[in-house]
Amino acid sequence: MELSRAAVESRLAACAQVAGPVASMYWWDGALERTEEWLVLLKLPADRYDELAAFITERHSYDEPEIIALPILTGSAAYLNWMREETRPVDPAPGVLSHPATARAARSRT
0.70 cut: is pTM over it? Predict the structure, then answer.
């Protein structure tokens, strides 16, 4: 939950959905592994993928976390606009640190 929350707080994803645990079977270092994992779906425009992938890779506990993108073929215009708006980088106000949560807090006080 912490990683998904951090991605949304950082405006790298408009929404995060967490499901699990799910049972996973995979090969790792020559051995068949079975483990319980959490499935996280992060919703964002395609042009934000590289930044989100770097964010996850830096913070995830796995050496190779599963980070894949599925195309959005179509969707409601209102939802797609909302997703784009919620993932726009936040421009910091003068004298405000660039962290999105700080920028939002500064806007709410004005």
Answer: yes
